[in-house]
Design goal:
Blueprint: H1 11-88, H2 92-113, H3 123-138, E1 141-143, E2 156-162, E3 173-178, E4 181-183, E5 186-189, E6 191-196
Parallel strand pairs: 2-6
Antiparallel strand pairs: 1-4, 3-6, 4-5
C-alpha cells in the first residue's frame, strides 16, 4: 500500500483517518489500563491480607506478653509469700528440739506443786522456767489448751479412748499427755490426748 501524502487527502479522508487513529489509541489505552486496574486491585487485596495477618500476629504477641507478665507477677508474689513463711518458721527445727525440755520443766513444776511431793521447785529453777517461757512466747510459740476441749483431729493426736466420766465429756479431751504447740498460728506439734467415749 502506498502512503498518500496527507496534504493530498480530502478533508473527509483526513477526518476518517483521525477517527480511526483515535479509536486505535483508545483501544490501546483501554487494554493497558485494564491489567493495571487488575494489578492495583490484586495488590490492594494482598496488602489488606498482610495487614490483617500483621494485626493477628500483634494480638497474639500482646496476649502472650500479658500472660507472661501475669505469670511472672504471680511468681513474684508466691516467692515473697514463701520467703515470709520461711522466715516466720525458720526457727521451727530449733524450737522442736527445745519442746521436750519445756515438757520436762512442766512435769517437774507439776510434781513440785503436788502436796505429797518432797521435791521442791527452787527459786532459781523457777526463774529459768519463766525466762524460757518468755523467750518462747517472744518467738511466737504458744501452747495449745486441749483438756476439756472438743476433740479435733487437726489439732490433737488421740493416744487412747476411755469411758467418759460424764455425759458432757463424750468426744472431748479428758487428759493431755503431751502439750501441742503453735508457732505463729501454725501447728508445730499436735497435742497427744486421751479422749472420752
Amino acid at each position: 500500500m502506498i502512503k498518500k501524502d496527507t496534504t493530498e487527502q480530502t478533508p473527509e479522508e483526513q477526518e476518517m483517518q483521525e477517527q480511526s487513529s483515535e479509536a486505535t489509541a483508545e483501544e490501546s489505552s483501554k487494554s493497558e489500563t485494564k491489567p493495571k486496574a487488575k494489578k492495583k486491585k490484586s495488590k490492594t487485596k494482598q496488602l489488606e491480607e498482610d495487614l490483617e495477618n500483621s494485626k493477628l500476629e500483634i494480638d497474639e504477641a500482646k496476649d502472650k506478653y500479658l500472660r507472661l507478665f501475669a505469670e511472672f507477677d504471680n511468681y513474684k508474689k508466691r516467692s515473697i509469700k514463701e520467703k515470709l513463711d520461711f522466715m516466720k518458721t525458720a526457727s521451727q527445727e530449733t524450737i522442736n528440739a527445745i519442746l521436750p525440755v519445756m515438757d520436762d520443766f512442766d512435769r517437774a513444776k507439776k510434781s513440785a506443786e503436788d502436796d505429797s511431793s518432797v521435791e521442791q521447785f527452787s527459786e532459781g529453777v523457777m526463774m529459768v522456767y519463766k525466762k524460757l517461757n518468755t523467750v518462747m512466747t517472744n518467738l511466737g510459740v504458744e501452747a495449745m489448751q486441749s483438756t476439756g476441749e472438743v476433740f479435733d483431729p487437726e489439732l490433737h493426736a488421740a493416744i487412747t479412748e476411755i469411758p467418759a466420766p460424764s455425759e458432757d465429756m463424750k468426744g472431748k479431751v479428758i487428759d493431755t499427755i503431751e502439750k501441742g504447740y503453735l508457732l505463729k498460728d501454725k501447728i508445730i506439734r499436735h497435742a497427744k490426748v486421751v479422749v472420752g467415749k
